[in-house]
Amino acid sequence: MSQLEEADRPGRLHAEHHMTAGVRVVTLRGEIDHDVRDVLSEALLIEDGAAPPRIVADLSGVTFMDSSGINVFVAAHQQVSRAEGWVRIAGAQESVLRVLQLVGVDTLIPCHPTTEQALIT
Fold first, then answer.
1. Which CA distances in Å does 47 have to 14, 44, 96, 104?
2. d(CA 104, CA 48)
3. Which residue among 45, 46, 93, 113 is buried most deeply as judged by most CB within 10 Å?
């Protein structure tokens, strides 16, 4: 398991990831905004040749997300789709899910109530 955290403001966004059945599960906690865009990008975007391009982003610990987070999720979706993979969002709190729905990300990236459901769908 590896961990990423924004260096300038510890605790602002914390990301951990591990592999489950060939799927990269990224667990995020904190707020996602312009200041932590790079931390989110590093957690979600894959390096060329890295496998597998299947990602579940657990947002149950995310309390806020602005357009910077939306942009990173769309970029991750585009990247893994080109590699015949997918991104799924799990456990988004109501306020974060509302943002995803308002901009239509939920029609591009499937949103699931739990990580377990995202893994089996």
1. 20, 10, 27, 26
2. 28
3. 46
3-state SS, residue 74: helix
* Identity of the amino acid at 94: E
In the numeric block, which tokens belong to residue 12?
């602002």
Tens of pLDDT along 41-55? Answer: 999 987 765 655 899
Beta strands in 6-78 (DSSP E): 13-20, 23-32, 54-65
Beta strands in 1-121 (DSSP E): 2-5, 13-20, 23-32, 54-65, 86-90, 111-112
The Cα 39–Cα 35 span in angstroms is 9
Residue 108 has pLDDT above 70, yes or no: yes
